[in-house]
What does this fold into?
Amino acid sequence: QQQVKQSPQSLIVQKGGISIINCAYENTAFDYFPWYQQFPGKGPALLIAIRPDVSEKKEGRFTISFNKSAKQFSLHIMDSQPGDSATYFCAASISGGYNKLIFGAGTRLAVHP
Amino acid sequence: NAGVMQNPRHLVRRRGQEARLRCSPMKGHSHVYWYRQLPEEGLKFMVYLQKENIIDESGMPKERFSAEFPKEGPSILRIQQVVRGDSAAYFCASSQTGPSEQFFGPGTRLTVL
It folds into this structure.
């Protein structure tokens, strides 16, 4: 019940295209859903996050879509750029608890010029 | 405004030796989380600490692993009698309060020979 399932494992997108990464969870107590971006040899950096009271959040080229009834959320990267090539992790936590993050397995994104 | 600092960045140990990983949280942050990332996998929660207290160690292996966050100085993750399976990247994250955003350090990459 603590798992967060992420797909796809890897993704290749052409420059200018849309990258879509999906995550699903079981624990309905989760109420904070961040996405992290990680470059090789670096620590994860928060990209964008959402709480279940909204269905969509947009920051620049990055959008989170959230479907509470389906217990799914996704990251959309519009106008993907080669600099977006990185590993992306979704995560979930219970902010009223200890807020430990439960991570998905990651998606390795490659944006080709 | 320095971010989360971890040292060493790379650590090589032989089987049976001890590994000590240090994490200095961001200024003003009193909450520290440790995560482990095995090759090609997502991050797994290990332990959550506040100053002088272990709050949640549900992700810590029962033996050989310990963590502390003293009143003064960095948080320490200690691994005794390391084995090859301990080879991983260890990340710490800090937050200002429990429910707030976690900021990750660059990680310590432990290699056990």
